Amino acid sequence: MDNINDMTASDAYDEDPTWIDPDFLEILVCPECKASVTQEGAWLVCGNPKCGLRYPIRDGIPVMLVEEAEKPHRK
Ligand SMILES: [Zn+2]
Q: For 54-65, what is each residue's pLDDT tens digit?
């Protein structure tokens, strides 16, 4: 699925394989800039607008590696 942009918190997460425990999410930080991250669908997005890296969630496990992260689109 590619519709990861408009995902909002809902009970859809009950059956979502990318669901992350909120307590676990709270301790995760962007390894690049140490900002907190928020979940957007199958991604964890860095909260720092100057960084903005997106980390994939694979099989319910966040891949918090800068090498694996997707950079925001910029020109
Ligand atoms: Zn960051």
A: 999 998 889 999
Model pTM score: 0.73
Q: Ligand 1 centroid vs 64 CA: distance in angstroms?
A: 10
How much distance in Å is there from the Cα of 7 to the middle of ligand 1?
Answer: 20
Give 48 Cα–ligand 1 centroid separation in angstroms: 5
- CATH numeric code, 16-68: 2.20.25
Q: Which residue has the tokens 């910029």?
A: 74
Strand order, beta sheet including 37-40:
37-40, 43-46, 54-58, 61-62
What is the Å distance from ligand 1's center to 13 Cα? 24
